[in-house]
Amino acid sequence: MTMVDAGERMGQAGQAERSATVPDRGATSTLESDAGGRPVTDARPGAAPADTPPGPADTVLATRDVVISYSGAPAVRHVDIDVQRGDVTAIIGPSGCGKSTLLRCFNRMNDFIEGAGVTGQVLFEGIDIHASDIDPVELRRRIGMVFQRPNPFPKTIYDNVAWGPRMGGYSGDMDELVERSLVDAALWEEVKDKLKQPGHSLSGGQQQRLCIARALAMSPEVLLMDEPCSALDPIATGRIEELIESLRGRYSVVIVTHNMQQASRISDTTVFMYQGELIEVGPTARIFTNPEKQQTEDYVTGRFG
Amino acid sequence: MAAGAAPRPRVTADQLRKRRSRSLKEEVIRLSLLGSALVSVFVSVGIVSVLLGEALPFFGEVSVSEFVTGTTWTPLLEPRHFGVLPLVGGTLLVAAIAALLAVPVGSLAALYLSEYASPRVRRRLKPTLEILAGVPTVVYGTFALAVVTPTLQAILPDVRVFNALSAGIVVGIMILPMVASLSDDALRAVPQSLRNAGYGVGATKREISLGIVYPAAFSGVISSYLLAISRAIGETMIVAMAAGSTPRLTLNPLESIQTMTGYIVQVSLGDTPAGSIEFQSIFAVGLGLFLMTLAMNLLSQKIMARFRETYS
Of the four, A256, B59, B70, B154, which is 20 to 30 A from A120 by CA? Predict the structure, then answer.
């Protein structure tokens, strides 16, 4: 992809317009090898043979030799991954393995942590997001984020969704955008009659779906989710997982989770990290049934972590 | 149960029984803590009863309605008039000028401290700001007379030697650190996760500070305003020195006025005999002052209580 393409894509606002450009998922779940010689993984087992010839994968987000350190101590070391457009990519690993740090690096949320530093390249649509002329505010409008604990604004349900687009200068029909975002977040039916009530009046699971609606209202290219279910009960978790399923193809989702079952249920690609290093990355079915690395096998079979 | 574990001694009822010495100690501690807590309650009750005790005879001679609605205050001159409105007006004028200065500047200072200042700058700036709160008010009064009033006179020739504007500005400077410091506390109590949420949807720091953090902390911020204003209403030394002693119902800040506190000082320092109506009048004015600041504090507490509910 050229820089010109990427620029045009950044200018797109319409969701429907974008989803039309997203190729069929089955054809794109190939994970390319990087310069470091990691093996090229094939399309997911059982996926229909791609109609298009196996060309360069449609990578939306990539890291090249990324090292993230806090006050000089590296928390993430030499990570190279490619996130495919329209896929759900799960990052798994035990606590402290650097998975959240890596996720926050994708929309430069680490900028707010004193002493945090990044080397290597994080490429969004081929653009180095740490280049000096990149505005992190513009970046975050295109790479949305959902946090560990539901954190709705102390505003009404409507304003929780509308605030971001309003600040971003959205000029379309706000009511329509709010409804569409809440529908996409599978929350509309529950809140359509109480849009003027405070976001805090909802249950924890509903609040988290409200936060997802808030992120979707920005029509992001990529949606980052940092253990979005860790504060939720199993039923609320199930609803979020269904919601993530429904976003597949329309959004590129990167989700950090230490719930392995969750990763295996919802993701196309799984990234396994351990002690700041990328151990293995591949199609989820293979990572969970036939991993190449012993450490991955030990982790996914529950021998540690 | 694991085989071969050593048998553990049974717990006897004796071991669990209450001990007299322990409960006695607990009781002593509880009572002495209660006593300390009650001191300020008793003092408040004492103050109110003294105020009422002296003010009630006053209201035997001057009707409450004359006191509350009268627009002339000449208690020391014949013919005597006991309309408290000029004093209330003077008090509110000074407090309003002070609030007009301290609320915007203090809010902006708080936003800077809480949202923009690096931890290093903040560590130095906040204590410096709080030093202002420790300056004796007589020093502020001198500052008003020696610096602020001459400066105002140089700009506006109509300014009197004693005037409400100069006193109001300096009272505003005095309550500024209170507004800044308390508002800063309220802003910093807003969870970081809300700021992150704002950044997550691509908002700028300004949008988050003004659109998320400030509204979220609004009740706490409002209550800092009210506490500071009630401090301004009760401020005595600065107004006694700089505002004058001419009870006058006016909105013109360039004129000399008198505040409720200023009047109380004037009579207390004079040779007014105890038991005279002039003497009693200061308790009536004091009672009014007490009720005004009490109302402000109650309002501020009510708002604070709502604030606590916001994110629990």
Answer: A256
Residue A260 Cα to chain centre, angstroms? 16
Strands A222-226 and A143-146 come out as parallel
Residues paired with A226 in a beta bridge: A256
Total residues belonging to chain B: 312
Classify B4 in phi/psi space as left (phi over 0), alpha (psi -120 to 50) or beta: left
Task: Name beta bridge partners: A81.
Answer: A63
ipTM summary value = 0.79
Quick one: closest CA in B to A161, which residue?
A: B201
Q: Is the predicted pLDDT of residue B22 greater than 90, yes or no?
A: no
Regarding beta strands A222-226 and A252-256, do their DSSP bridges make them parallel or antiparallel, or are they unpaired? parallel
Cα A180 from Cα A214, distance rounded (Å): 11
Which residues is A255 bridged to in the sheet? A90, A225
State the pLDDT confidence band at B137, using cuts at 50, 70 and 90. very high
> Residue A206 pLDDT more than 50?
yes
Collapsed DSSP state (helix, strand, coil) of residue B253: coil
pLDDT, tens digit, 9 for 90 and up, residues A260-292: 999 999 999 999 999 999 999 999 999 999 999
For residue A156, give the DSSP letter: B
- The beta-carbon neighbor of B202 closest among A152, A154, A168 is A168
Q: Which residues pair with A77 in a beta bridge?
A: A277
Domains annotated for chain B, with CATH where assigned, are: 85-259 (1.10.3720.10)
> B199 vs chain A: nearest CA distance in angstroms?
7
Q: Could you give the 3-state DSSP secondary structure of residue B248?
A: coil
- Interface membership of A149 toward B (CB under 8 Å): yes
CATH class of A3-47+57-300: alpha beta
pLDDT in tens, A130-146: 999 999 999 999 999 99
Instruction: Give the pLDDT band of residue B3 (cuts 50, 70, 90).
Output: low
- Domain residue limits, chain A: 3-47+57-300
Residues of B in contact with A137 (CB under 8 A): 202-204
- Segment B31-57 mean pLDDT: 93
Nearest-angstrom CA–CA distance, A161 and A249:
22
